[in-house]
Amino acid sequence: MLALAFALASPAWAGNAATANATPAAATNVAIAPAVAPDTQALVAHYSVRDARGERSLILVRAADRIEYRQPGEPAELWRQTPDGIARLELFATEKRSIAWAPGDLRTTGRMPQWEQLASPINPQLREKLQRDGSAKVLGLSAERYRGESAEGQPIALQWLAAEGLPAYYRTGPAKPKAGDTGAYELKLVKLERLPTAEAFTATGDYRETDYADLGDMELDPFAAAYLKLNGHAH
Length: 235
Fold this sequence. Notes:
This protein is mainly beta. It has helices at residues 2-5, 11-15, 103-108, 115-118, 197-200, 222-231; strands at residues 41-51, 54-62, 66-70, 76-82, 85-92, 97-101, 131-138, 141-149, 155-161, 166-172, 185-196, 208-211. Strand 1 and strand 2 form a beta hairpin.
């Protein structure tokens, strides 16, 4: 469950307990294309993530009614706003298969997120618990700096891009964590761009889509059987 558990990046949307490290290194300025109508372009944020699991990448793609998270070795997560609520699509690139969760499935299983939480890799409300600590420039953009402590007493550092509604940098734990320090977490923005929506999101035209609610009747399907073994049966 990439976005729901968010073990990929940080616990509880990287804001309720732990995350991030050290002052980010200076980055090369990246030009941001002018904003246009939200239905024609998407914001694409590329992050590096570092914690006890090592270092990896995280990509957030965001448009007015769609949000996607991608990270190596994990199924991509595509979320959509619908008249009935939020829908979720898990994308398995190697198998060219996808699992579609209707809003009712998410509500029934207690996995319905808030759109505001999906829109950022850390909980936007985290800033309310931190102290403003000046400003900074990140990728040529103006960022607000915050500092504070987690519920466990770990130091937190945050640089927030208010105009984009995204973190530029987030750390929980010491700036220079020791080897094996499981409480250290760092999220750093390395590239931010705007792309045509058709290019920004994963193309799913050649994926075979299966409804989550139908998985229980598909135990003879190897892909469905493997999914159910890992994630549990649909109810």
